[in-house]
Amino acid sequence: MQPMQLFNLAFRQNEWLAQRQSVISSNIANANTPGYKAKDVESFEDVMSKSVRMTVTDGQHMAPADIGNLRQQESGFGEAEVLVSGNDVNLEQEFLKSSEVVRSYTMNTQIMKTFDRMLQSVTKG
């Protein structure tokens, strides 16, 4: 029997979300610190693409190179105005990032709850 990779993936995403929320909180806490530069973590997709190699197991599957082309490039988003103090933290963007983390965590949790209920219904008969 193969291990449940979905649980491992969900766990890794929750770890990444916690780390991102910590960085966002640090940015918000330092919003008035002179010279502070806003930080962010590498996207989860980039982290996973480095640690998990996608392979084509069937000739009709999409090749891994095609997956990268499906991402939309964001233009101008995330660029903050640098203040006279040298601080470039934009509170509006940080709060948007924070709400994105909460939405992702909620969705991840709901998917895992549903998957767990499905597994329980199958094993209970």
From TrEMBL:
Residues 18-37 form the Flagellar basal body rod protein N-terminal domain. Its main location: other. One of its GO terms (cellular component) is bacterial-type flagellum basal body, rod. InterPro entries: Flag_bb_rod_N, Flagellar_basal_body_rod_CS, Flg_bb/hook_C_dom, FlgB. Keywords: Bacterial flagellum, Cell projection, Cilium, Flagellum. Residues 86-123 form the Flagellar basal-body/hook protein C-terminal domain. It is found in: Bacterial flagellum basal body. One of its GO terms (biological process) is bacterial-type flagellum-dependent swarming motility. Structural component of flagellum, the bacterial motility apparatus. Part of the rod structure of flagellar basal body. The basal body constitutes a major portion of the flagellar organelle and consists of a number of rings mounted on a central rod. In Gram-negative bacteria, at least four rings, L, P, S and M are present, whereas Gram-positive bacteria lack the L and P rings. The rod consists of about 26 subunits of FlgG in the distal portion, and FlgB, FlgC and FlgF build up the proximal portion of the rod with about 6 subunits each. Belongs to the flagella basal body rod proteins family. This is Flagellar basal body rod protein FlgB.
